[in-house]
Acyl-CoA-binding protein (ACBP)/diazepam binding inhibitor (DBI)/endozepine (EP) (Coemansia nantahalensis), 106 residues
Amino acid sequence: MADAKAPELKEATPELKEVTPDLKKAFDTAAEDVKELPKAPSQDEQLTLYGLFKQANEGDNTKPKPGMFDLKAKYKWEAYEKLKGKAEAQAMKEYIDFVKKLQDKA
């Protein structure tokens, strides 16, 4: 009987903490690429992009929650707020990955 090899466990990728010039360049490219998607992202996808973009560029949300009658602003605020605590570099990486996913989907 052949020795069965245990499957290798994939180590969790540690969260990125530092914005490198290469990461910033890839992020800027992804931010331009998203404007050229052949199919517009869904509203949920747009909110994901918005939240990641804001977190990557501005860090944690410090603005007060908009009033209940401004639904668009409320949804955007919530998409950004839920990323509080995520490092800017990690938000950039997730934004890049999400744009690639949207490109593959198109």
Q: What stands out?
A: The mean pLDDT is 89. The chain has four helices and no strands. The radius of gyration is 17 Å.
